[in-house]
Amino acid sequence: MQLVCFDTETTGLDVQKDYIIQLSLVKVDTSDWSVVDQRDWYVLPEGEFAIPAEAEAVHHISKAFLLENGVSLRSVYDDLVAFTDGCDILSYNGNGYDAPILHYNLARLGMPFDFDGRTWYDALLLERIHTAGQLDENGEKLPNNLTAAYTRYYGHPFEGAHNSLDDVMATIEVFKAQVAAHGWQWAQRDEFGFICFDRWLMKKGEYYYLTQGAHKGESIESMVRIDKSYLEWIVDKCKWTDDQTRNIIGPYIGRYTSPFASTGSGAASSGALTPSRGKKRPKGIITDADLSLF
User: Fold this and answer.
1) Are 131 and 124 within 8 A, CB to CB?
2) The dihedral of CA 133, 139, 143, 147: what is its sign?
3) Structure confidence by residue, pLDDT tens digits, 11-27
4) What's the domain range around 230?
5) What does residue 114 show for φ and ψ, rounded to 5 degrees?
6) Distance, CA of 269 to CA of 263 (rounded, Å)
7) Residues 45, 168 within the same domain
8) What global pTM score does this model have?
9) How far apart are CA 272 and CA 269, in angstroms?
10) 214/189 same-domain check
């Protein structure tokens, strides 16, 4: 099996507004973990952008460097799509950060990316499960950042942290060690079948579950019976809701078009809806480890 591992460096942490400034991808053959091919692009955002000093201090990529060496995301788009075609994806916190920010960066350019039909392995979630309940010598919870995870498996930190290509290579090594320790079946998790861009939903099996709010952990199907108005609020009123989430929730509440689209009827606009603030219910079958992905 061929697997593509990817990572980004960015101008900030807002997945909807910040820009990717380095995008690295490495394709490996999981039969022997050999590198098949790789891509490493410094990306020059289109239009005006800034790199805050605190971000530059982490990844050491300056605006001057990008102006001289960067390529546009638009110019490498076809290569990105072709490079990842037919491959499952690996990352370290990519399901909660790198995949969403890639989605929004491409969406701003009017470019789609196929996030469906793949397994999105996230080695950070696997490491959280691997170290669950373990404490360090000071009785503190074990850290699960990429450097800490790599050091646990190999006895020393890796070089080049916060350069996305080096982070990709380290992620591959961590994932390889995780699979060696627990097996491929352990790494096959329902959460890895779906990427949520606005963090409202996750998919487990055939069902979607809320990842935040008063009804965190409830399935969308059960929410239709428990508090349908809460789903209507997510669709109509929450400013953080992405069109993908609207399209998923819509059929459950009798909506088949985005409520923000002009439909010529009142069916798609429920202006009087107010958010539900009912008593918080206990979580369903979703665990905190599942939800920590987002």
Assistant:
1) no
2) negative
3) 999 888 899 999 999 99
4) 201-291
5) -80, 105
6) 9
7) yes
8) 0.77
9) 9
10) no
